[in-house]
Amino acid sequence: MADTPSAPSPLAFIETGPDGGWCDVETGTCTISAADQEGPHSESQTTAGDS
Amino acid sequence: MTFPRLTIDVWADVLCPWCYVGEHRLSTAVAQSPHAADIDLKIHTWQLDPNVPTEVSWIPEYRVRRYGVTPEQARAMERDVAGQAAADGLPYVLDRPVRNTLDMLRLVHLGNEHGVGRPYMAAMQDELFGGNPDAFRHDTLIRLGINLGVPADEIRDALATDRYADAVRADHAAAVGLGARGVPFTVLGNSFAVSGTTSLAQYTDAIDRAWDHIHG
Description:
The complex is a heterodimer.
Chain A: E1 12-13, E2 21-24, E3 30-32
Antiparallel strand pairs in A: 2-3
Chain B: E1 6-12, H1 17-32, E2 39-45, E3 57-58, H2 59-67, H3 71-87, E4 97-98, H4 102-113, H5 117-129, H6 138-147, H7 152-160, H8 165-177, E5 182-183, E6 185-188, E7 192-195, H9 200-214
Helix pairs in contact in B: 1-9, 2-3, 4-5, 4-7, 6-7
């Protein structure tokens, strides 16, 4: 199920701050958000280790 | 005059630690909102790792096997989430069971048919992250469903078949179409989205923004 959208999202994505985290939909890895770390919808996404 | 209600759609997996933390933060933000009575929260499913075996194993060894990290690294990763969960007052057991979640997610869709899909997933998460070693057992899932008013025979029927598997796939496709990269994936008023879990304050701001947008 590791697919990606083929068209631009119709939604406006709200940037998230450091107090949280996410699990990557493609890799399944989970990452804690840090103040100096980009989130899942930044320009150049980085995927850190699993949480 | 009738004001449009605000719908908040959330995609999540029982296995996803940030979905567990995010569910509590978003629920709190909605409850504290002055518009709480006019907000509908809907749960959708996202299976984070369909390749998790159907046999129960334990989170540290699963992470070692799945991601090639050392046991200590696996525990360190878990502690990051555990710290935030603890700050929110949530139980978070590091040595908890792990198993394929497709059965659970199918039951969430059954729960949705009875109007309790969200609390059904939340109850499953509470069992899992609370450390119940039997969190994946069918009798546990039946007990949780019955507590929410889902008929036991319908739960048993779903577990004995592949009922709602198509609904899990449809939810997955919908999230992909909306551009989800991280879960939990939250869509507010069909206009704004949050990928991942954010702070209570940011959930509150997002709700206010979406509310203002639809009542512009």
